[in-house]
Every structure is written in C-alpha cells, then in structure tokens.
Amino acid sequence: MDIKKMQFVELDKKMQFLASTYFTSLFKSERVPTLHDSDQEEVVAPLKVFINRMQSTFLMLNKEEQKIINNDYFFEDYPYWWESIYSKKDYFQIKRQALIHFLRTFYEE
User: Fold this and answer.
1) What is this structure's pTM?
2) Phi, then psi, of 99 in degrees rounded to 5
3) Burial call 50-79: b when 16+ CB within 10 Å, e when fewer
4) Which H or E element spans position 10?
5) Half-sphere exposure (CA, 13 Å, Cβ side) for 54?
6) What confidence score (pLDDT) does residue 4 get?
7) Where are the domains of the chain?
C-alpha cells in the first residue's frame, strides 16, 4: 500500500479507523481486569501492543503534526480549531503530511 499516493479522503478514513480502534482498545483494556489472570493476559496483550504502537507512532511526529492529529482525531471537541492558526490551504497541506507520516510510520513499524 503506497500511502503517499492515497487520496485525502482515504487517508482520513484510515486515521479515523485507527483512532476509533485506539479508544476501543483503551476502554477494553481497562475492563478486562475482572477476568481470571490467564484469560486476562490473553485478551489484554494484543490490546496493549496496539495501544503502545499508536502512542509511539504519535510521539514520532513533529509538534505541528501532533497538534493536527490530536485535535482532529483524538480530541474532536472543537471543530475548526485550526481557522485562527492556518489558512485553509496550509491546514490541509499540513494535515495531509501529518496523516501520511502517521500512517506510514504506523504500518511500517
């Protein structure tokens, strides 16, 4: 899969899916401790791998990319947060680059 050649909409959908899966994994990993120890580790281990991979990928982004990924996919409370910071053209260029960097790093690890 050549991420750099993907359309913006495809990049956005992939990132939305990863963000949704990340939050679901966090929620499930917090709920599992009620299981017996052997069952708990079997369920929690893959969740922790995914969570850690998402977090380490995020930390590999530069600060501007982190701001965009964070505000657009993880803390979506403030739509159009970027309007006072970027022009529309700059925002979408930086966002595209942030998506490519995140997805490429995540899938290549």
Assistant:
1) 0.84
2) -65, -45
3) bbebbeebbeebeeebbbbbebbbeeeeee
4) helix 8-31
5) 22
6) 87
7) 3-108
* Closest residue by Cα to residue 44 from 27, 57, 60, 63: 27
Of 8, 106, 6, the closest CA to residue 58 belongs to 106
Asked if 101 and 108 count as a contact pair (C-beta separation under 8 A), the reply is no
String of DSSP letters for 41-101: HHHHHHHHHHHHHHHHHHHTS-HHHHHHHIIIII-TTSTTGGGGTS-HHHHHHHHHHHHHH
Here the tokens at position 29 are 């990993």
For 6-65, what is each residue's pLDDT tens digit? Answer: 999 999 999 999 999 999 998 888 765 555 555 555 666 788 899 999 999 999 999 999
Q: Specify whether the CB–CB gap between 103 and 51 falls below 8 A.
A: no
CA atoms within 13 A on the CB side of 107: 14
